[in-house]
From TrEMBL:
Cdc6 C-terminal domain residues: 305-388
Domain AAA+ ATPase: 48-206
Full protein name: ORC1-type DNA replication protein
Summary of the function given for this chain in its UniProt record: Involved in regulation of DNA replication.
PANTHER family reported in the protein's UniProt record: CELL DIVISION CONTROL PROTEIN 6-RELATED, ORC1-TYPE DNA REPLICATION PROTEIN
GO molecular function terms listed in the Swiss-Prot or TrEMBL record: ATP binding; ATP hydrolysis activity
Keywords linked to the UniProt accession: ATP-binding, DNA replication, Nucleotide-binding
SMART domains cross-referenced by the UniProt entry: AAA (SM00382), Cdc6_C (SM01074)
Family from the record: Belongs to the CDC6/cdc18 family.
InterPro entries per the UniProt record, alphabetical: AAA+_ATPase, AAA_22, Cdc6_C, Cdc6_lid, ORC1/CDC6, Orc1/Cdc6_arc, P-loop_NTPase, WH-like_DNA-bd_sf
Biological process terms in GO annotation: DNA replication
Amino acid sequence: MGMFQRDQQIFADAAPLDDSYEPEDIRERDDELEKYQRALQPVIDNRPTSNIFLYGKTGTGKTVATKFMLSHLEADAATYDDVDLSTVWVSCENLSSSYQVAVALVNEIRESQNKEKISTTGYSQQRVFDILYDELDALGGTVILVLDEIDNIGHSDDILYGLPRARSNGYVDEVRPVIIGISNDFKFRENLSPKVKDTLAEKEILFPPYDANQLRSILKPRAEKSFHDGVLADEVVPLCSAFAAQDTGSARQAIRLLREAGELAQANDCESVSEDEVRDAQEELEKNQLYEGMQELTTQGHAVLCALAYHQSLEEVPIRSSDLYERYTKICERLDADSVSERRVRDHLSDMNMLGLISVYEHNEGLSAGRYHEYELDVPLTAVLDVLLSTNRFKDLADIIESTADDNNLLQSDLSDY
Ligand SMILES: Nc1ncnc2c1ncn2[C@@H]1O[C@H](COP(=O)(O)OP(=O)(O)OP(=O)(O)O)[C@@H](O)[C@H]1O
C-alpha cells in the first residue's frame, strides 16, 4: 500500500471548503445585499453612481457578496445595449500607497487587454494617475474599481480623493469611475481625511459578524456537498458554527474548522466525523493562530517576548514592567538593536495580550506604590522558544533561555501542556 491514497470515505468533494470556492447563493445577508443592489442600480439606469464602502471584520462575506453582486450586475448590464460597464478588481494586500494602487489598477486594465504592463517604479505620482485616467477614458462607460483591503494604503489616500473627482476636474470625460472600497479595519475609515470620507463613503454597508445560527446556515450546504452521506455526525456543523461565532463570527473560520475536522477524521482512518474531531481541530487551529501571531511580531515585539521568556525560564513571573524593561534593553544591546521607550514596550505588551500570548495583571496599591502591571506568558514557553529559535537574530538568546528552562525542569511539564 502506498503512503498516499485517495480518500473514499470522508470527503465527496472538498472544493466547497476551499477559500476560493464561490457559493451559489449568499446566505444570511439579505439586508446587506438589498442595500448593495440599491447602490448599484444607477449603473443600469445610466445615472451617476455613488462610491460604496464596505466594512466589517474578516470573514463576514464582504468579498463574496461583492463578487456575487458584480457578476449579476455584469450579466444584467450586458442585456442593455446602452449600458457600458467594466469592472477592475485589485487586492491592496501588498500595496501601501496610492501610487502603488494606481500602478496596480493600470496593470490590471492593461493585462485584461493583453497590453504591456507599466513599471511599478520610476514615475511621479501625477504621471501614474494620468496614465490611469487615460486607461479609464479608453474603457469608457461606467468602470467599477474594486479596491479590496484598501486599508493597507494607510494615510496615503490621494487616489481616493483623485479618482472620484477625475470627471469633475476634467481629467477624464468618457468614463464614470465608481470605487468600491472594502476594509476590515474600522480605524481606517475613521482616519480618512474628511474630503476623502465625504466621497468614498457616500454609501456605506456594514457587514456584522455572524452569529452561530447564521454560520450554521452558511455551513450546511457546503457540508452537504463536501462530505459523503452519513459521514457527519449531527452535532458537527452546529459545533463548528458555535466555536467560530464565539471567537470571531467569521464564516472563513467556521469553514476552516469543518475542513480541519474532516481532515483529522481522514488522517485517523475514521469512518465518520464526530464532535471529538471538531474539538481537536479547534485546538489545533488555536495553536496555529497563536504561533502565527508570535511569528508575525516585529523585531521589537520579539525582543519584548524574549525578555518575558527569559524571566519565565527563571520562574520570575509575573514580572513588573520596570524589571521586564531592564531585561529588554539588555537584549537589545546584545542584538545591537535600538531599544524603544518603556511606554512603547508596554504598548507591545498590550498588543501581545490582545493576541492571547501573555497575561496582564493590574495592581493598584493606592498612593504609596501606585498602579502597576505584571506580566507572564499565556502560551507554553516551548512554543515561544520555537518561534525565537526559528528567528535568526534571536536564535542564540533562545538557546540560552532554553537551557536555563531545561535546568529548571520547566520544559518537560510545559511540553505536556501543549
Ligand atoms: N453569507 C455567506 N454565504 C455563503 N458563504 C459565505 C458567506 N459569507 C462568507 N462566506 C464564505 O466565507 C469565506 C470568507 O468570506 P469573504 O472572503 O467574503 O469574507 P471577507 O469579509 O471578505 O473577509 P476578509 O476581510 O478577510 O477578506 C468565503 O469562503 C465565503 O465564500
